[in-house]
Each structure stands twice: as structure tokens, then as C-alpha cells.
């Protein structure tokens, strides 16, 4: 979420390529933090068997043509890059990622950032990053919009009857559910959080046990030992 910085430094100053740490300010609110965590955890759980993507929140993207940390950097609230190694990173350094930019970016609006997110950042993501899809969401008033890059220009993504927006990059819908931005499958299934997934697994196990107990009781009524069935 940082603005681009440009300082005049001595020519002999060299920044080690491995020391490009993220340089992002604190998030606007707890709502913003929880929303980022939600997007990250749900996608990583859904893609737990994939190793060809990288997802991060509030992490700096360095994209200086001169490969300098002191200029040309942005920190999207949430982004996903595809076709890359899934590993821990201190930041996203474009020249260390074979020139790759994010495939999808999500910005969380606030009163202090909305104008920049809808204006300057959108222009940068369109013209410099060439990011295929850009979404924004306001955790406070639930404003939600998405754009797809067509012919070099962002065009609005049309919503389905539920108000969800399709992401070609993720092959998932994004939509507002209980005041939060969530993912949905093409069939409309809500992508669960780790907690929701654990609850679902527990419920399935309990249902399986109930069915097994019911079958065992029926077999005993027929004088059949369930252990030998």
C-alpha cells in the first residue's frame, strides 16, 4: 500500500538482491487484516496440493526497471501469482521472478485509500503490471467491483445473479458472504476456511458413525453379528 518512492542515491550504493524485505505500513483496521487472512487461508487450503502459485497479503512488490529497492514499488493488500514456485518470500521482486507480476490483485478500500485504489493504483496495475484481474472491496460498506484486462484496458466484470464476480485466473467466483469477501466454486459452493473445513470433516465423521451404528442395530435385530458381517 506504499506510494512509489524515488530518492537520489550515490551510484556506488548496491542493494543485495536477497535483502529486499517487504516495506508496508500497518493496515487500516482489524477488518482489513481479518479479510486478508481470510482470502489467504481459504485459497491456500483450496489449493493445498498445488505448488505452482504464490499468494500474499500486504507484501511489497518491487518493480524498478533499474532493479533498485528505493524506487517503483507497491504493496497490494492481497495478490496471487501463478506459474511460480510456492515458497516463503520476504517480498515480491519482479526481476527475481523472471519479470512476472501478479495474476490477480485485490485492494481493500478505506476512506483514506479509496481514491488511490480506484485511480493511481488501478492505472499502475493496468499499464505497468498488466495484471489480468483487479478487484476492490470495502470491508465497511461492502462496495465490491472487479475488472479484467482486455486489449490492454480494464473492463468491468459482470456479476452473476448472486452478485458474484468470476475470476478466470482463479477459476473461482469472488463474492460477498456475511459481510466478507469469499471464494465460491463454479457450482456455487462456498470455499471453507480451515475452521469450517475441520467442522465439515467432524460432521461427516459423525454422520458416518451414525449410519454405521444404525446398520449394526438393524443387523442385530436380524440376529446377525455386525462384527462378522
Describe, in plain words, how this protein is organized in 3D:
- This protein starts with 29 loop residues before the first helix and ends in an 8-residue tail after the last helix.
- Helices cover 26% and strands 22% of the residues.
- It contains 4 helices and 12 strands.
- Mean pLDDT is 86; it is low at 1-18.
- The protein has a 6-stranded mixed beta sheet with strand order 1-4-6-7-8-9. A 3-stranded mixed beta sheet has the order 3-2-5, with no helix packed on it. A 3-stranded antiparallel beta sheet has the order 10-11-12.
Percent strand: 15-25%
How widely separated are the two ends? 63 Å
At the first level of CATH, the class of the largest domain is Alpha Beta
Question: What is the CATH architecture annotation of the largest domain?
Answer: Alpha-Beta Complex
- Tally of contiguous helical segments: 4
Number of structurally distinct domains? 2
Number of strands: 12
Category by helix and strand content: alpha+beta
Order of helices and strands: HEEEEEEHHEEEEEEH
Rg over CA atoms, rounded to whole Å, is: 23 Å
CATH fold-level assignment of the largest domain = tt1808, chain A
Instruction: Name the strands of the widest sheet in spatial order.
Output: 1-4-6-7-8-9
Low confidence ranges: 1-18
Q: What is the topology?
A:
Blueprint (H helix, E strand, L loop, with lengths): L29 H17 L6 E5 L3 E2 L10 E2 L3 E5 L9 E2 L10 E5 L5 H5 L1 H10 L3 E5 L6 E7 L2 E4 L8 E3 L4 E6 L2 E5 L9 H28 L8
Parallel strand pairs: 2-5, 6-7
Antiparallel strand pairs: 1-4, 2-3, 4-6, 7-8, 8-9, 10-11, 11-12
